[in-house]
Amino acid sequence: MLRRLAIRSAALLALVLAPAAARADAGFDRWLAAQWPAAQAMGISRATFERETKGLEPDYSLPDLAIPGKPRKPDGQAEFVQTPAAYVSDKAIGQLAARGRKLASQYRAELSAIEKRFGVPGSVLLAIWARETAYGGAKLSHDALRVLATQAYVGRRKDEFQGEFLAALKILDEGHVARAQMKSSWAGAMGHTQFLPTGYLKYGVDLDGDGTANIWSSVPEALAATASLLKEKGWRAGKRWAYEITVPSGFDCTLAEPGYTLSIGDWLKRGVKVADGRRIPASALKDEASIIMPAGPYGPVFLTPANYFALKSYNFADLYVLYVGHLADRIEDDKPFAQGWKDISLVKTRDLEFMQKELARRGLYADKIDGKAGMLTRSALGAYQKANGLTLDCWPDAQVLEHMKRGG
Question: Cα 379 to the chain's mean position, in Å?
Answer without folding.
Answer: 22
